[in-house]
Amino acid sequence: MCETEFGINFTELSFINMNAIITGATKGMGRAISFALAAENYDLFICARSASELTSLANELKELNPGISVITSVTDCADLDQVKIFAAHIIKYIDSPDVLVNNAGLFLPSTILNESDDMLDQQLHVNLLAPHYLCKFFGRKMREKRSGYIFNICSIASINPVVSAGSYSVTKFALLGLTKVLREELMEYGVKVTAILPGSTLTASWEGTTLPKERFVDPKDIADSLIACLKTSKGGNIDQLIIRPTLGDI
Fold this sequence. Notes:
By secondary structure, this protein is α/β, with parallel strands linked by helices. 39% of the residues lie in helices and 15% in strands. It contains six helices and seven strands. It has helices at 28-39, 51-64, 80-90, 119-145, 166-186, 219-230, and strands spanning 18-22, 42-48, 70-74, 99-102, 149-153, 192-198, 240-243. A seven-stranded parallel beta sheet has the order 3-2-1-4-5-6-7, with helices on both faces. The longest helix has 27 residues, at 119-145. The N and C termini lie far apart (37 Å).
């Protein structure tokens, strides 16, 4: 989706604020993170699969903070070609992002022995290959600029495997590994990298549950924690942040 579809004139976009990229921005943690960064005066580049949901979110963000720019892209993170187009589109506006949030994820519950043959492949594309590409593409630009912050939204399953979500756990283990490698590779260039590991969080994955909200982490908790990371001193990097429900994961 291009900027003109929202009635935005390219020449009117100033991009004088800090900027952030958020994948999977229209729901759950991505939506909460979008609002949190908008409140902190970040210009936003957001993607999701639904054009109508992106339009609605962009309007809400601009209503919250008329001083920011919001650029949207209809992107399915399961399709690496679409992810590459999204990245290339962003570079039309900025040289390097200040913040990259790899939030888009796919959760397909099943034990490994009982899953369909394509279940790992489906989740691998969204949960690992898309963030891997975006980390490389924008990490190189952050390295050149010698500044930037990458957040990978992992999962408590990255460290505590969930048997009933076997291949999901495998992909999230891999995403945490990617994050750790990037942290070591980019630290000498002043680029920060943080893995956020939420426990059971009230997102679309739990749609239809009859459990009370108090049994889950609120997506806003994830967003607030991300903002807190951004406000650490230049010399401090929060390598890994675990946020779990008070009563334990479901």
